[in-house]
Design goal:
Helix content: over 70%
Distance between the termini: 22 Å
Number of helices: 9
Number of strands: 0
Strand content: under 5%
Amino acid sequence: MMIQSMVFSFSAVLSLALPALYFFKEPKGQGGTFWSLIAVAIAGTISWTLAQLSGEWRTSLSLAIWVTISASIISFTITCGINRLAWRLTPLLMPYLAAMGLWAMLWQAFPGHVIEGEGALNNWIMFHIAISVFTYALATIAAVAALSAFLVERALKRKRPTKLTRMLPSVIDSESLLVRLLIACEVILGLDILSGMGVSMMETGHLLIADHKSLFSIGAFVAIAGLLWAQYQSGVRGRKAARIVLVAYLLLSLGFLGVKFVTDVMMA
């Protein structure tokens, strides 16, 4: 059973790596091949995620990572459908998601426990989890867009472009996409914080518990809000903007996956 799970999960990882490998070799644009490979990645990740869920949500770190990967690839597909240049982030995003899949494979031996709840509380918890997952998915794409702008800007300043930076969107295009993603991320992150307050109120009677996840989420919300305000007021961009986005992403990672690692692996 364990060998079968490892083969299934490795197949899902491979489905994520294929788009990056193909387009790094032959970037032919957002055509039929691109959508076919993305469809394979979606099918591979979602089928493995659903196989792990088996009709119930568990606190497993491995499952949380795969759910995040599935949400990220879905969000990226939608983004590519809306923005004609978003596909150029493929060589950065897909290897990162594949690396996350390999990381998830390391923790499959820690199944976690089933999240229990009744009636309205259970529904509210599921809603909060869904919002959290898609918040992190959008933040992942935003962080990749920020990294893209950083790499291209550095290559231009050094006058040493690489094959990778030639494939990525221009600095202006990356930053334009980044701002839109951050606005969407900020809205959904705000809903995530509010839904978390709702869960806290129903479980403990307190509106907000100062735990690690809440503090990291609020910190990321403040960082993104500050960046958007600074960008609107004074046009903050380039490396400074990229650093702020990556810090916000780190805070979300610590709050969403970092806390799960501590509670479901280190304290298991």
